[in-house]
Amino acid sequence: MATDDLLIERLLRVIDEGRRTATYKLALLLAIIDTAATMPGEPRLPTRSIAGRVLELYYPQTRSYVDRNGVACIPRQISMKSSTVVARVERLRLTGDALRCRSIDEVARRAPREHQRTLDVVEDTFVRYPIPLLQVVGAQSVPFLYAVSWREGTSVASLRQAGADHVALLDGVGDRLVILGPMLRPLIEYHWTRDVALWTRIDTEDEHLRAHLFARDRSAFPSELVSGLFDEQAGACFYCGDRLRQHAQVDHFVPWSRWPNDAVENLVLADRCNGAKSDHLAGTAHLQRWRARLDNRPGELATIADAARWSSAPARSRALAQTTYQHLAPGTPLWVRGKDFELASGPAWT
Fold this sequence. Notes:
Blueprint: H1 2-15, H2 24-38, E1 44-46, H3 47-58, E2 65-66, E3 72-73, H4 84-98, H5 104-110, H6 112-128, H7 130-133, E4 136-137, E5 140-141, E6 146-147, H8 156-161, E7 166-169, H9 173-200, H10 206-214, H11 223-232, E8 249-252, E9 267-270, H12 273-277, E10 281-282, H13 284-296, H14 298-308, H15 314-326, E11 333-337, E12 340-343
Parallel strand pairs: 10-11
Antiparallel strand pairs: 1-7, 2-3, 4-5, 6-7, 8-9, 11-12
Helix pairs in contact: 2-3, 2-9, 3-6, 4-5, 4-6, 5-6, 9-10, 11-14
């Protein structure tokens, strides 16, 4: 317990650091949490995977923000004049906008060279600075998340040549991050939003700005995606099986508030069950049906995503569900129907 308390204390210290000059450390922390969740049981996290998640976080944040008074600005991610990472990500987003891409995944498919070059910049920058500096307290390195074999300023090329382009999670940290992640995420997002508001010199407008930085427009699901899911589910609600009416709703099977994942594999159509389920985890019977769909109809889901120019990530979706349901504490309420819940007896993914 003492070790766990120390991990939490140091995580909170990083999140609540008052002298931050960029959002890099917050982005790195979220990226490590998310990468650990998509690689269950893996003690080494590739720097390329971490950089990929950092890129996914920054990509939508380079859009122009319009405050409640109608004034537009670009949110600043750094207190200094410029950021190599953010400038490069903004350049990629402009490429994506020109191609009318709906997501970073589509940009990777349609502009692979530009995407890889951006990923190179993100990875090299984070290897040189945030990764070796995240665990520094004062002038001393105090590892509490991972061990790194390089010093500040080291290039990713030299690490890759030595086969050392990864961070090694300390014993038990991966499991703790999976459990703590859904609780840490809103706190990280709050401090990230506050920093951006300060450096951009705008009113905090906490939820409005935070929604711009981290949430997605729930009305943005394209009609091709909805109709594809409708056909795949034979016009029935995924949860109760009733016939879907005119106002079918897209639901994130593993709730967005736990692990942001818009891939088609994590999406289902529901009727009023969507509101009843809300941000709760679905019950074991729903989980088994979702797993069967993922196992038995992966090609159909990928075809739906392709037709809608949407993202498809079966491995990521499976891993996020697996890590979530493998770490259920006994007594965790799981939604069944309406106002009915079942209590987990322990891990529900075997």
